[in-house]
Amino acid sequence: MAGLTRKAPVGAHYGLRDWLAQRVSALVLLAYLLVVGVSLVVAGHLDYDGWYSVFAPQPMKLFTVIAVLALAYHAWIGVRDIWMDYIGSTALRLALHVATLLWLLYCVVWSVKILWSI
Amino acid sequence: MNSNPPASPRPRIRNIGIGDLLHYRLPLAGIVSILHRISGLLMFLLLPLLLWLFEASLSSERSFEQFQDLAHNFFVRLVLLALGWALLHHLCAGLRFLLLDLHWGTERLAAQRSARVVLFVSVPLALLFGLYLFGAF
Asked: Which domains are present in chain A?
């Protein structure tokens, strides 16, 4: 009977906080898209200088990093739910969870590197 | 029900199998919902491409030109069109879900109508984006 009481380490036991984070991060991303959209319209010509001038200012870099963090959290919850729904094997699911987390972390670091090298 | 209870494994509840999917007729809201999931996964999988393009477009004027050449490639444009559709659908369907969370339009007819609105907005916008990508204007 011990098998019935033991919980899988990748079960769904963190409901409300993630549910809320999913929605808050969605709103952050929506706000970011609107700001980038307006900035692009204001910048006018979409040559390199115009494109560069949108992302180069410090506040925009910071907002972009916040948006990427929101994206990573948002994608983590969504993709984790997909693994939980369709991947029956606990070992495979755990491996996919770890891979997803590491990959998203890599993307966050990568985007910071991109932004601070311009 | 169970013939050998001591050794019974954790129950696995499966209400549909993969084969059943072909016979199911999803309502419009169900189609919007599964496309929300598919578009989200698609964007997750294409995230490295997007970051790579973002890096190329920003790091220097020279790499920006390379980015432009790349963006002229037919296959890259198809992938960008898929990404554009995914973002538009995910955005529209996501806004609908946020409104449903606020208990707005949860009645059957209202929910059907909002599902239809999601598709009527996201699909034409994706087509417009495709026309723009392939140089119609």
From this structure: 15-115 (1.20.1300.10)
